Amino acid sequence: MTEPASARIAADLRARISDGELAPGDRVPSTRELTRRFGVAMATATKALTTLRQEGLVRSVRGVGTVVAERSRTPHPRATAPGPAADRIVDTAIRIADAEGLATMSMRRVGAELGIATMSLYQHVASKDDLLLMMIDRAFGEELLPAGPPESARAALGTSARTQWSCYRRHPWLAQAMSLTRPQPVASVLAHTEYVLTALDGLGLDTTEAFNVQIMLVSYVRGIAINLETEAQAEAESGMDNDEWIRAHTDPLKSLTAGGNFPMFERVTALDDFDFDLDALFELGLTSILDGLTTRLTHP
């Protein structure tokens, strides 16, 4: 039996909303636009929008038209308990994001890679947001934290930070996907919080102070890692890696220091062997943080 035209239109708009192409507050195509695009009667286009309105995906705004409704951020249960089919979807989404960046990963792209219709994905993954939660959970779950108690708080913080860094290194998109101020409910990420809080327990910090230490650590690692995908994109667009780019732009930097206003930085531009190494920068910052925390915990 042929699918009704109104259902096809509703499915198309539903997919665009789930993909984020149409974000909350965005105006959706009017019935007039839909009639032109799909070659249907006004009544058919109206029925499609009515269906989405009944599902809570869109709402009418006086003087504006029909817009995408605000959606709940509560994760769908399937986001935390994927089955075999969902596993394939997550694997494919991660492979796309690893190779081309998070911006290229959409439900439509994943469906195309799997050779199935986009709407079929929603039988296993509730939305693109839920798929992203699954991807984050899978990425952070690839490296497990030690099962036994850490030998010290410093060791625990170092282990957690380096494990996170390794995950970000393996998946450059991951830092872009994470949020510090609106943390995602992901079990493999929460494991790091539990691990660090357990190590800090009994060392004189109250719960708020200990949690702030964990937040600072997570923020530091993510702050360095955020450059991984940015650099990968820049390299793909320019055809130059970081070292090649710096060499190509040395002369403009030297011209800024020629007047003697930046004598210390002039010494940097004179270096022939400076290696901008994110791994080394990460370790330098982490060691400094751990040194400071160790001193604080030992001498409150």
UniProtKB/TrEMBL annotation:
Chain residues forming the annotated DNA-binding region: 106-125
Pfam families membership: GntR, TetR_C_1, TetR_N
Record-annotated HTH gntR-type domain positions: 3-71
UniProt xrefs under SMART domains: HTH_GNTR (SM00345)
Family annotation (InterPro entries): Bact_HTH_transcr_reg, Homeodomain-like_sf, HTH_TetR, Repressor_TetR_C, Tet_transcr_reg_TetR-rel_C_sf, Tscrpt_reg_HTH_GntR, WH-like_DNA-bd_sf, WH_DNA-bd_sf
Domain HTH tetR-type: 83-143
SUPFAM superfamilies, alphabetized: Homeodomain-like, Tetracyclin repressor-like, C-terminal domain, Winged helix' DNA-binding domain
Keywords assigned by UniProt, alphabetized: DNA-binding, Transcription, Transcription regulation
Domain of life: Bacteria
Protein name per its UniProtKB record: TetR/AcrR family transcriptional regulator C-terminal domain-containing protein
Organism for this UniProt entry: Pseudonocardia aurantiaca
